[in-house]
Predict the structure.
Amino acid sequence: MLVGEYKTKICNKKRVAIPKVFREELGEEIILTRGYENALILVNKEMWQKIANEVINGSFINKNIRDTTRFLVGSALQIEYDSQGRVVIPDNLKEHANLSKEIVFVGLYNWIEIWSKENWEKRLEYLKSNSEEIAQEIEKMNKKAE
């Protein structure tokens, strides 16, 4: 289970150490791609297949499915750890997430989000300010699904 918040820095050679607790859970085959709210998504190959299947099994005719496929699948790549558990984040993904020096890994059970420290702090403020409304919306969605 991927949970927790870990802060780290990108070194001069564009490498970043994946927290050990996450590396152990993810395994060796990992996929990195664009995420929502200017974050990146890091998953193992098994979870990636589930995500990709949900996206690509929709109708090609549907514009939203095509756009979601472009967004998530179009930027995805398999990355490898070096001997010290570090990975290189490609420039296009660094730009998407506005990553500079300090970054935050957030474990969300099935996937990990990678945020710039500044964007994560802004998102946390939003979550703190809107947590009651968000919870109420989730409750409404759950009632509709019943």
Observations:
- The longest strand covers residues 2-9.
